[in-house]
């Protein structure tokens, strides 16, 4: 299979002729602004989309608000059954939806299908969650009193997603939010709007078949306009935003000014420490996957590797050798591990980052240039390894590209210092077979990230754990564990079943 085959299959299966509607609120509606989807694989147009406008936004929010009033009354297990049926439909469409991801954002076939599989996995998780929305019972200090908490649906939730995970991140938020009784307004990236439309078509079919209200709505419009409308809208009590630190700050300011809530999943500048006590084969595979998966366009991509001076020469030489064997090109072809960057602007940022690194004293050990792939006009670059110094400012920034900065360390304390020296705090890893080093890395003075891995990559989080990071990554948590609480409101309940009115703290109020 090549990208021409993918394009043909997607066009036939999803009927891409004409202009596609990008607004859904129980029905599909056309906007007023045309947007042409271009594949980063070959630089060729895929489809024309009519983006949402302000009228469409207002219709979608109103529909989501009305739907919430009905949906919150559905018993949670019944809501979970609907999400289960969505998961079943996604199983049927997994391969075709995965091809849309490959065509639109340039992921390999296996990564594209893995993205849809992640949606299926979170639907399974949501089914279980629907019978486990637990609250605590506390001991009251007053006689004949019962004290407990309950969790209630919050309202219409806004979910703003990025291009790099155009389907799964939406489901992390939306399937959990819907299971606990919320409705969801989706603002996808215009860089991945085709995937969003096809996912919403699939999901909406099930919702309509089950005679449920439009619990999922979509407004696919320009990022600044639609994103800020959502962030400023008091009818939307929670905004979940995935994207850059700069945009996340602006979203947070808008939402906090109206005392709303946010779940922020912002930049990652993730590092892996490779100890001299590491299993080198495992470490090499972990660093390679972390640095090169999705062409370095994951928020969890490994951007820095910190290597013990005792094995530095051997590890780096093997890393360079491995990079030289990696195939870059059409992600739909077997054997290709690194596809394109998302667009021309991303290539320019890659080039500028390499230039800055060299100006700051870095040494390019491999790659460093844009790459031409025969027969394709896509946006390709060479996977790049740069030997870095601790004082290089470019290493403190996140560049969404396959650039790996290599550092040398003397002892674990220095390695952790280098690791924690950046403003972002999403994912981290250490490769070691030494229990003491592992525990040091996981201690309070170890990794300062929201995700810590031992002998596995910084990339590739499972849906069962809460996903998110610290510092400039934003502090948000999505997906598994108890992240569901972010989408609900907590209510503490006190019941007096006695015949008197005793007060807490021994306060007396006698009449």
From TrEMBL:
Transmembrane segments: none annotated. The active site is at 265. The lineage of its organism: Archaea, Methanobacteriati, Thermoplasmatota, Thermoplasmata, Thermoplasmatales. The keyword NAD applies. SUPFAM superfamilies: ALDH-like. It is an enzyme of class 1 (oxidoreductase). It holds the Pfam family Aldedh. Residues 32-493 form the Aldehyde dehydrogenase domain. The keyword Zinc-finger does not apply. InterPro entries: Ald_DH/histidinol_DH (IPR016161), Ald_DH_C (IPR016163), Ald_DH_CS_GLU (IPR029510), Ald_DH_N (IPR016162), Aldehyde_DH_dom (IPR015590), ALDH7A1-like (IPR044638). Belongs to the aldehyde dehydrogenase family. This is aldehyde dehydrogenase (NAD(+)). Its EC number is 1.2.1.3. GO terms for molecular function: aldehyde dehydrogenase (NAD+) activity. Homotetramer.
């Amino acid at each position: 299979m090549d990208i021409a085959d993918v394009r043909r299959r997607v066009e036939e299966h999803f009927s891409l002729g004409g202009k596609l509607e990008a607004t859904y609120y129980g029905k599909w509606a056309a906007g007023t602004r045309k947007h042409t989807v271009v594949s980063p694989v070959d630089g060729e147009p895929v489809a024309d989309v009519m983006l949402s406008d302000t009228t469409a936004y207002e219709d979608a929010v109103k529909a989501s608000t009305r739907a919430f009033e009905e949906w919150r009354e559905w018993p949670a297990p019944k809501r979970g059954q609907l999400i289960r049926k969505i998961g079943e439909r996604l199983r049927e469409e997994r391969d075709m939806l995965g091809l849309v991801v490959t065509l639109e954002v340039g992921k390999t076939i296996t990564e594209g299908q893995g993205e849809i599989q992640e949606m299926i996995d979170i639907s399974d998780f949501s089914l279980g969650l629907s019978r486990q929305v637990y609250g605590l019972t506390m001991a009251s200090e007053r006689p004949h009193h019962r004290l407990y908490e309950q969790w209630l649906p919050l309202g219409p939730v806004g979910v703003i997603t990025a291009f790099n995970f155009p389907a799964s991140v939406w489901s992390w938020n939306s399937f959990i939010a819907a299971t606990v009784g919320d409705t969801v307004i989706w603002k996808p990236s215009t860089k991945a709007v085709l995937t969003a439309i096809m996912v919403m078509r699939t999901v909406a079919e099930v919702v309509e078949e089950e005679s449920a209200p439009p619990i999922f709505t979509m407004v696919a419009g320009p990022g600044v306009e639609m994103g800020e409308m959502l962030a400023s809208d008091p009818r939307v009590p929670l905004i979940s935003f995935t994207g850059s630190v700069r945009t996340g700050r602006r979203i947070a300011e808008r939402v906090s000014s109206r005392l709303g809530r946010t779940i922020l999943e912002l930049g990652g500048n993730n590092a892996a420490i490779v100890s001299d006590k590491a299993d080198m084969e495992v470490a090499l595979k972990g660093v390679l996957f972390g640095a090169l998966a999705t062409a370095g366009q994951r928020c969890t991509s490994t951007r820095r590797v910190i290597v013990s001076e005792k094995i530095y020469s051997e590890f780096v030489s093997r890393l360079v050798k491995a990079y030289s064997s990696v195939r870059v090109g059409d992600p739909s072809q077997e054997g290709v591990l690194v596809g394109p960057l998302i667009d021309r602007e991303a290539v320019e940022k890659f080039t500028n980052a390499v230039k800055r690194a060299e100006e700051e004293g870095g040494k390019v050990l491999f790659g460093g240039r844009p790459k031409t792939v025969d027969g394709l006009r896509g946006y390709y670059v060479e996977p790049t390894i740069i030997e870095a110094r601790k004082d290089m400012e470019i290493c403190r920034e996140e560049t969404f590209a396959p650039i790996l900065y290599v550092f040398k360390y003397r002892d674990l304390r220095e390695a952790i210092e280098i690791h924690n020296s950046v403003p972002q705090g999403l994912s981290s890893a250490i490769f070691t077979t030494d229990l003491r080093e592992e525990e040091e890395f996981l201690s309070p003075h170890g990794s300062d990230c929201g995700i810590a891995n031992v002998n596995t990559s910084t990339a590739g989080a499972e849906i069962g754990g809460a996903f998110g990071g610290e510092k400039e990554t934003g502090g948000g948590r999505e997906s598994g564990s108890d992240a569901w609480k972010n989408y609900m409101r907590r209510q503490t309940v006190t019941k007096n079943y006695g015949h008197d009115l005793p007060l807490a703290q021994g306060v007396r109020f006698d009449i």
